[in-house]
Every structure is written in structure tokens, then in C-alpha cells.
Design goal:
With about 250 residues, this protein is mostly helical. The chain contains ten helices and five strands; from the N terminus they run βββαααβαααβαααα. The chain has one domain: Rhopdopsin 7-helix transmembrane proteins (Up-down Bundle), CATH 1.20.1070.10. Strands 4-3-5 form a three-stranded mixed β-sheet. It has a two-stranded antiparallel ribbon with strand order 1-2. Helix 2 packs antiparallel against helix 4 and helix 4 runs parallel beside helix 8. It starts with a strand and ends with a helix. One of its GO terms (cellular component) is plasma membrane. It is a multi-pass membrane protein.
Length: about 250
């Protein structure tokens, strides 16, 4: 469609991973295997933490929420990516692109913040064990989750609206495999400097700051562990952080 002698973009096209014939099928199988592995692993975590009464603690409450987020996080991009592997027209509608960006931004920001909350949980449990049940009560966990979700929903909605109210008049080929923020901004027909600054501010607040909180928490945790007199006590205490450390490393 056209307006004021400019082409208005109604859909977007993704660039293929490779132009080599036959490689798309191999990539499809590889990505599908990784996606199914992620789904099965996260579903198992959710089921085990619900069934095993010994895992009904704030740490595993956050871990279960993280698994829900991870399922949504991967599902927001991977299924469309798999479809594009098998089709010649690797596209997505304007509305579909906006919905994908909103889901990816929301769940990505939420995952970073949840990892920081899990680090704080381990910090309180190891560095202030006598206050743990008071500080990390179930009411506090639910309140922290509810407030965080509200902030994440509003932030992702504002960021997505900010980007998709920009004029897009061509080209419509996104140099990526999903509707990510910066690759899409490069297609806008206006100066996007303010939008890029807003993206970097959000990145600092909700990616860098949680990362620094995680690092600070573990510096304090390690300091407390090293002061313990017995090697067995050190190993037992540090083992309580293993699940969180694995998740942070994988993320």
C-alpha cells in the first residue's frame, strides 16, 4: 500500500542463515532438537519442584518461575524460526513482528531480574541465615514477583509501542532471525537516535544492573564461605548455590 508517495511496510522479511542448498534442513533439525531439549528440561524442573515437598522453598519457587519464563522466551522466537527454515518466504506480519518483540522483550527483561532475585535469595540464606525466613517469606516472594511482573509488562509495552509507532517505508528485510530491537530500528524512515538511547538505558537498568547485583551477591557469599572453619561446611554451603550458578552460566 502507498501513502504520500511512500511505500508503507505491512510485513517484514528475515534474511536466511545461509544460501547454501540443503543446509536449511540441517539447521531445522539442529534447532528443533535444542528447542525440544529446552522444553523438556524446563517442564521437568517445574514438575519436580511442584511434586517434591523438599523443594518448596523460595529458591525453587524462583527457579520454577524461571523455567516458565524460559519456555515462553524460547517459544516467542524459535517456532517462527523453524517455519522459516522450511519456507522460501521467510516473513512475518507487522502485527506479528510487534507481538514477537513484545514477548521477547518482556520475558528477556524478566529473566535477567529473576536471576538477580535468586542471587539475593542465596545471599540472604548464606550471609544472614538467622533472618532468612523473615526476609524471604512467601509473602515477600509473591509480592516481589507481582511487582516485578507489573514493571516488566509496562516497560515492554512502552518500548514496543515506541518502536512500532515509527514510520517504516522500506526496505523491509530484517538482518536477523526474529524481530529484535536494533535490527528493526535500522529500517525506520526517521532518525532513531532517541529510540536507541532508550534501548540502551533499559539495557543498563535491567541487564547490567542485575548482572552487577549477581556479582556483588556472590562476592559476599564467597567471602562468607571462605570464613567457615571446615571444608565440609564450605562444600555443603556452596552446593546450595549450584543450581543458580548453572542457570546464570547457561543464560
Amino acid at each position: 500500500m502507498t501513502s504520500r508517495n511512500h511505500t508503507v511496510v505491512t510485513d517484514f522479511q528475515f534474511l536466511p542463515f545461509s544460501s547454501i542448498p540443503g543446509i536449511q534442513g540441517s539447521l531445522f533439525c539442529l534447532v528443533l532438537l535444542m528447542y525440544l531439549s529446552a522444553l523438556v528440561g524446563n517442564v521437568l524442573i517445574i514438575v519436580i519442584t511442584r511434586v517434591d515437598a523438599a523443594l518448596h522453598s523460595p529458591m525453587y519457587f524462583f527457579l520454577k518461575n524461571l523455567s516458565f519464563l524460559e519456555i515462553g522466551y524460547t517459544t516467542s522466537t524459535i517456532p517462527k524460526m523453524l517455519v522459516n527454515f522450511l519456507t522460501k518466504r521467510k516473513g512475518i506480519s507487522f502485527l506479528g513482528c510487534a507481538m514477537q518483540m513484545y514477548a521477547f522483550s518482556l520475558l528477556g527483561i524478566a529473566e535477567c531480574c529473576l536471576l538477580a532475585a535468586m542471587a539475593y535469595d542465596r545471599y540472604v540464606a548464606i550471609c544472614h541465615p538467622l533472618r532468612y525466613t523473615t526476609v524471604m517469606s512467601w509473602n515477600m516472594c509473591f509480592l516481589l514477583s507481582a511487582v516485578s511482573w507489573l514493571i516488566w509488562v509496562l516497560l515492554a509495552l512502552g518500548q514496543t509501542t515506541f518502536i512500532f509507532t515509527l514510520p517504516y517505508c522500506g526496505p523491509n528485510r530484517i538482518n536477523h532471525f526474529f524481530c529484535d530491537l536494533l535490527p528493526l530500528l535500522r529500517l525506520a524512515c526517521v532518525d532513531t537516535f532517541k529510540n536507541e538511547i532508550a534501548i540502551y538505558i533499559v539495557a543498563v537498568l535491567f541487564i547490567i544492573v542485575p548482572f552487577l547485583l549477581i556479582v556483588t551477591s556472590y562476592i559476599q557469599i564467597l567471602h562468607t564461605i571462605f570464613k567457615m572453619p571446615s571444608a565440609g561446611g564450605k562444600r555443603k554451603t556452596f552446593s546450595t548455590c549450584s543450581s543458580h550458578l548453572v542457570v546464570v552460566t547457561l543464560f
